[in-house]
Amino acid sequence: RALIEAGGETRTVSLGAGGGDADFEPLRGRRVTITFSRPGDEDFYTLGLREITLANARLTRTLDGAGPTGAVCGFGPTLVVDGQEIRTRVSGQIGSVVAKGQLAVEPCGVRGRIALDAGQHRVELRSTGQFQPVALKLDSVEEPAPVERSRSLEVLTESETRRVVRVGSGEAAILSLPQSFNVGWAATVDGRTLTPLQVDGWSQGWLVPEDVAGDVVLTYEPQRAYLVLLIAGLFVMGLVVLAGAGVGAVTRLRPARATDGDGDVVRPVISGRHRRHRVMSLTAGFIGLGTVGLLAGGPVVAIGAVAGFALASRPRWAQTATAAVLLGAVVALVIQVQRERQFPWDGIDLATGFGLALALASCVHLRRSTPHAS
Asked: 227: helix, coil or strand?
């Protein structure tokens, strides 16, 4: 049950075994105190309190996030060291609880210290109904001795997916990177592959044997297949466009000219209404395709779509321009790979988007219906 005190008045409400909502007569006061208890509980089990909500209450003071909270000694998560249980306490701020942050857990005793002898130990921090441990950190009370590198290390080159470091000779050591472990990374020295391992349970590392020294090449292996497929795809796309341009040049027929009985060529007569209709259709096409390109890939793609629509009546020009742009992107990608840059330049992505938009938009044709004089 809960005892509510405010303004010199008290209200006692029953919450039941599982808690829940409880109604009580209104109270008015500048300070509210709520005391929870379990009548008839002689074992003094800890009460669990997850959340308190005062519905329909006019609160004029915000919650003080800097206020202290936690659990006194003996009511925190149980710490087990080599089978021996050690009581703990929890300390923190109200704001951390509201924001679902973390609280500090320390062993009870003088300065929260635990004496451990040299050797292997098993440490366990158990969960409770109120607290869920998320991390365990053991700090030495004495300053650790400085760690000296067993080998010299020099970074020669570094990119997103490839690094070259020079490792000096010495005893067996671990080469580590400050990044999460990923099986895609590989390390080689003169064609010899190093054994990968996780350092501190999370970071990337390799075992460097005693007889290995020199330039260590660290590469992200999946990136190589990605670049090969990207270059091949752009190259094939350019060839398809060039082939289409060649077929169009061979099969394109010159339209026959209409003649009268005397053999004179009859010029088509285009009315003003037809001309206005065509202008409106062209304007709608430019605006529509430009808008779609802008939403799909930005200003560069929009320009490619508009250019492709402008060249729709000249398919050979459109095909040639598309092939030139895509093949130029392939050449630029090959050049950057030779310079050991693993990710495509932004300009290559933009050029590819421009070429694709140009090719697609050039396929949009307006149907012509030109009246002829009789």
From this structure: helix
Can you give the pTM of this predicted structure? 0.35
Distance CA 333, CA 348 (A): 7
Alpha carbon 44 to its chain centroid, in Å, reads 48
What is the predicted pLDDT for the residue at 269? Answer: 53
Question: How far are the Cα atoms of 31, 80, 110, 121 from residue 83, in angstroms, in the given order?
Answer: 46, 6, 21, 10
Q: What angle is formed at CA 20 by the lines to CA 17 and CA 22, rounded to 5 degrees?
A: 110
Coil vs helix vs strand at 360: helix
Using DSSP bridges, classify how beta strands 192-193 and 185-189 pair: parallel, antiparallel or unpaired.
antiparallel
Q: Is the CB of residue 110 less than 8 Å from the CB of residue 127?
A: no
Strand partners, 13: 2
The runs of H, that is alpha helices, within 185-314 are: 222-251, 272-297, 299-310
Q: Which of 270, 288, 298 is nearest to 364 (CA)?
A: 288
Low-confidence stretches of the chain (pLDDT < 70) are 17-20, 40-48, 50, 57-62, 110-112, 141, 144-148, 223-275, 277-278, 281, 285, 334-346, 349, 364-374
What DSSP element (H or E) covers 215? strand 214-220
DSSP strand pairing (32-36 vs 88-93): unpaired
pLDDT at 246: 54
What's the pLDDT score for residue 29? 82
